[in-house]
Amino acid sequence: MITESRPLSTFYSDPHKGIDRQATVSVSGDSDYIVNMYYEKNLIHSRTISGHTLDYAEDCAENWVLGVIKE
After folding, report:
1. Residue 9 sits in which domain range?
2. pTM listed for this prediction
3. 18-63 pLDDT, tens per residue?
């Protein structure tokens, strides 16, 4: 069964540092969050976050754009 997701927030890397990363956080269903991680506008990874808060999913997105999570 395909569940539609609803976008919640978007994170961007600092363009002055020469890194082009972006992450979006969406909610799917009632409690799952989906973090889509992009590098140079290409989807690199999609991570489903279950059993955690929106803050946790947004921390994951922020870690991607900051380079804490590697490709």
Report:
1. 5-66
2. 0.86
3. 889 999 999 987 779 999 999 999 999 999 999 999 999 999 999 9
The rounded distance, in Å, linking the Cα atoms of 69 and 7 is: 21
Give domain status of residue 21, yes or no.
yes
Q: For residue 28, is it left (φ>0), alpha (ψ between -120 and 50) or beta?
A: beta
User: Does residue 50 lie in a domain region?
Assistant: yes
Structure tokens at 55: 């803050």
Contacts of 70 (CB under 8 A, 6+ apart): none
- Euclidean distance between CA atoms 46 and 39, whole angstroms: 12
Measured at the alpha carbon of residue 20, what is the angle toward residues 17 and 22, in degrees to the nearest 5?
120
- Tell me how many domains the chain contains: 1
Q: Kind and range of the H or E element at 28?
A: strand 21-28
Spatial CA neighbour of 14 closest among 71, 69, 62, 70: 62
